[in-house]
Design brief:
The structure holds two protein chains of two kinds. By secondary structure, chain A is an alpha+beta fold. Chain A contains five helices and twelve strands. Chain B has two domains: 178 residues, no CATH class; 127 residues, Cyclophilin-like (Cyclophilin). The chains are: A alpha+beta, B alpha+beta.
């Protein structure tokens, strides 16, 4: 989907307004008065024919996460339902490299996968009406950090001290689809220090290449 | 003092909107923008602004604001509403102003817009526009994401919205001639993208019955109440993109039409999509109203879009100079304090 979106973008066709990649599809918003549906379909088929083996390279990020119980209201329940200890949940969650599949729902909200199968749970039966920005949630085989205060039906097991949305940046969002993310567990004190230094993401998140 | 409008009462939901924030949906940023872009464009055309200049979108109940500039030229286009100009903040009564035409307000005078009738939204455009920094290329308010517009939210009492112009220009007064803001009996839609998730009977039900717009509806989505659509293939799809006008159906079977502040992606199957040419009219629909849909093909939809774009192009030509009628002159005399009570308009003219 990402490669198709990039391929389409590279053609600089008149009439393409924007494209939105998700895990299963690429939505193409276009002006039919500028480019006909048939012509657009032709371009898409051409790109798909030449896609085989193409991989999209993204950036890599280390994001600090504080799994302290103050920030992890669902850690106990998640551990219990998964037959693990809270520490095992934290270890598992921070043991894998996640792929940014897509951004959606809120500005800068990245859907990261795949969450280890041992942690896969259905959503909470009662969504929370408001959770704080930076909250780390898990749901299904996905995990994400909420960039702003929002209602939420996922299980909260930690919090990130860095903002994933900053509208002073050119694009606002720190992460983009195709990036790789690992989580680095930090203590409550390190979390507070990171918060105090700045709410901007860039200084704390290292792009590893 | 920098020119501004100071909000005395915000109304029910008054936000700054333009034609939307395009090109950032892949970052999760909603498009937003005016629910009725035709009225927004017309309001801007009246005051001589570019079509996509940010204006106030007023929903259901209008705001009251005081002018803190030497003078401003304003125009209201959209729903019918009582629009008054009061001499100052302490005054109880003012002069009635007609919609669909420009009017001027001086420093210290107050504009009071009442309850909207016959449609949900009204646009208040100011000559020159607001001095608001765009976020990601747009001044549209996206309240759920806290960005754009005035501080990322709807207006509240005490807000001071900076204006670009210190005083109104001498460009004259204008009115709109023959702008069509009517609503179709049935909103036309093309099937898909996930119509295969529904039985033929369910799809027939969607196009043959009527739906009431529920009170929980807002700028994000119109929640409908009517014939239930049963899924034949489950109701959890992996998320994909959501266009404005998408009719998605969650597990409870009642359709939801996604509007300007819709989320960029979503995980419920979408049975059909309202065509772009009918979206401005759909944006005018009020809570409690009954709407119906009609299925058409993609070629017809594109043909209707072509006609719709021509209609948009015609807006500028519908702006014609205002020649004062007898009633206008009475209003003018009121404004100048030359008369102090209600008298017969013809007498005032004869004087």
């Amino acid at each position: 989907m990402l490669a198709l979106g990039q391929g389409l973008g590279a053609l600089h066709l008149d009439g393409i307004i924007e494209t939105v990649p998700t895990t299963r599809s690429l939505s193409v918003y276009y002006e039919p008065m500028s480019i006909s549906t048939a012509a657009l379909q032709g371009h898409i088929v051409d790109i798909l024919d030449n896609l085989r083996g193409t991989t999209v390279t993204g950036r890599s990020w280390d994001i600090p996460i504080c799994y302290d119980s103050d920030f992890a209201p669902d850690l106990g329940e998640v551990a219990e339902r998964c037959n693990l200890s809270p520490n095992q949940v934290i270890e598992l969650h921070s043991s894998v490299t996640y792929h940014v599949y897509m951004l959606g729902f809120l500005p800068g909200l990245a859907y990261l996968g795949d969450l280890p199968e041992a942690l896969a749970l259905s959503r909470r039966t009662a969504p929370r009406p408001r959770i704080p920005a930076g909250s780390l949630g898990i749901g299904g085989r996905m995990t994400c950090i909420y960039p702003m205060d929002t209602p939420c039906g996922w299980h909260l097991i930690g919090r990130s001290p860095v903002a994933l949305w900053d509208q002073r940046l050119e694009n606002g969002a720190i992460l983009t689809a195709g990036d790789k993310v690992t989580f680095k567990p930090v203590s409550l004190r390190e979390y507070e220090r990171a918060r105090a230094e700045s709410t901007v993401a860039a200084p704390h998140m290292q792009s590893t290449h | 003092m920098a020119p501004a409008l100071r909000i005395l009462k915000p109304g029910l939901l008054t936000t700054v909107q333009d034609l939307g924030r395009r090109g950032y949906q892949h970052l999760g940023v909603a498009v937003s923008g005016a629910l009725d872009p035709v009225s927004l464009r017309a309001a801007n055309a009246l005051v001589g602004n570019a079509p996509g200049t940010g204006a106030l979108e007023v929903a259901y109940v209008g705001p009251t604001f005081v002018v803190e500039a030497d003078s401003v030229q304003l125009a209201c286009v959209g729903a019918g509403a009582s629009i008054e100009v009061l001499p100052d903040e302490t005054a109880a009564d003012g002069i009635k102003i007609a919609g669909m035409q420009t009017f001027r307000v001086r420093r210290g005078q107050v504009v009071r817009i009442g309850a909207l009738h016959d449609s949900a939204v009204l646009y208040v455009a100011v000559e020159g526009g607001f001095a608001i920094e765009p976020v990601l290329g747009s001044v549209s308010t996206f309240a759920r994401g806290g960005l754009g517009g005035w501080q990322g939210r709807a207006l509240t009492s005490g807000d001071v919205l900076p204006l670009l112009l210190d005083r109104a220009s001498d460009r004259g007064e204008f009115r709109l001639e023959g702008l069509n803001l009517s609503r179709p009996a049935r909103y036309r839609a093309i099937l898909g993208p996930q119509n295969a998730f529904f039985s033929e009977r369910a799809i027939r039900g969607l196009f043959e019955s009527e739906y009431t717009v529920k009170s929980e509806s807002d700028r994000m989505a119109f929640l409908l109440d009517g014939q239930k659509l049963d899924h034949v293939a489950g109701f959890d799809i992996v998320s994909d993109g959501i266009a404005m006008g998408s009719i998605q159906v969650p597990g409870h079977g009642q359709p939801i039409v996604l509007m300007a502040d819709r989320q960029t992606t979503g995980g419920y199957p979408k049975v059909a999509t309202v065509i772009s040419a009918d979206l401005p009219a759909l944006g005018r629909v009020r809570i409690g109203e009954t709407i119906a849909f009609e299925a058409i093909g993609i070629e017809e939809a594109q043909d209707l879009r072509r006609k719709h774009l021509l209609e948009i192009d015609s807006i500028q030509g519908r702006v014609v100079p205002l020649t004062r009628s007898v009633e206008d002159i009475t209003a003018h005399l009121f404004a100048s304090n030359l008369i102090s009570g209600a008298i017969d308009a013809h007498c005032a003219y004869a004087d």
